């Protein structure tokens, strides 16, 4: 079996699955995909209702912690990341959102030619197979199935009624001309089953494309170089150290935390920081691991005795068993729920050009990412800040490639972020206090008695954490001292090395990051194919 391929892709997440699949469409191009986790093709992944088993623990999940966060009273935050083919698309809430058109136009305005909204829209459409929507903003026939929910939960209508009562506009499609408004999310599912990036791009081709080799349980430990050219990857599989070689390129798709970690382990980063761990510098690139951005998120929670919510109660447990039986029969009902069934995008001030907060309305009461279950049933509502000013970073804790990286999102590090979160809290409260939703509440678990701005600031610092959208640690840019890759996603100053994942985003987009990361994989494959044709 040869260990030399045209391309070696490190990381089988959303970006890695897309780029590996598209490059291997040409039978004359050989591709190896290395994934540290497993195949992620069992019922825990495919059954949406099993998501809680993964998010809250270590099933298909790296389950990282942050360093203590000064903006959060020194608390240590939680950063679940998908481990296995599909990456975080195998454990996420499946919400299909692209962000706002202005996000991509901003990338282009920063000097990233080819990344405007008009440039990236064709790749969103190419990736998509939308069963409900079409027209100029949606695609049919792509690998990623997108559809409406099949949970049949009547609370969705209650949510929309509350939105009307609170005088928010209703939006049927958050990925079309306008984003502002509240509504029900579309999800990456087909027939009530999760449709991860792996299920769309990799699983159908396993054993069928002779030019695509997928290695699972393969933990990359360093990039191999010949002078300034990446020529391969060293990885651990079981207890064995192996090497695999790339004729054309090594493509890093290990995600916002582990792509910069692998670069630093390979001597690419800030020379002084690397020297502290005894790592020789391959290439001084100070932006590696800098520019970390994530959506800070606050969760309201309410108990409810309405028979529509998941939770630990005699009625709730009975509904789970009934739901499992229905799911097995017809792939409908509560087990198809992504929990965050409703939501939307709102402006905290009318003079804003674009929405600055996003809601995720959940059909269960979620506390600490599901890691602190409590007796009773209820619902919750997330509010996150879409374009935070705070910037964090990722760095090495040691030269051990199996150690977790140090992660500092710097949540609420800038006072402006806290100010907007206070406004976001009040805006969300308007919705939650609307009669339709108020009627479902039996108690306010976290925010009873919170009245003043000082009260709100205090509880935000006590309870804010991630809503799972970290980006930016291998920033795309030109003439920028923190830029790691150019607009072709090639690592500055090196040859044969590209980054294809959410870490390349120069700024955080206004929405969920899975669909944009798949778009990045699609666009990267097109750019690579164009270069191959030109050569």
Automatic annotation (TrEMBL):
The keyword Transmembrane helix does not apply. GO terms for biological process: glycine betaine biosynthetic process from choline. PROSITE patterns: GMC_OXRED_1, GMC_OXRED_2. Belongs to the GMC oxidoreductase family. This is Choline dehydrogenase. InterPro entries: FAD/NAD-bd_sf (IPR036188), GMC_OxRdtase (IPR012132), GMC_OxRdtase_N (IPR000172), GMC_OxRtase_C (IPR007867). Residues 82-105, 255-269 form the Glucose-methanol-choline oxidoreductase N-terminal domain. GO terms for cellular component: membrane. Keywords: FAD, Flavoprotein. Gene3D superfamilies: FAD/NAD(P)-binding domain, Glucose Oxidase, domain 3. Its cofactor is FAD. The keyword Flavoprotein applies. It comes from Bradyrhizobium lablabi. Signal peptide: none annotated. NCBIfam families: PRK02106.1. One of its GO terms (molecular function) is choline dehydrogenase activity. FAD binds at residues 92-95.
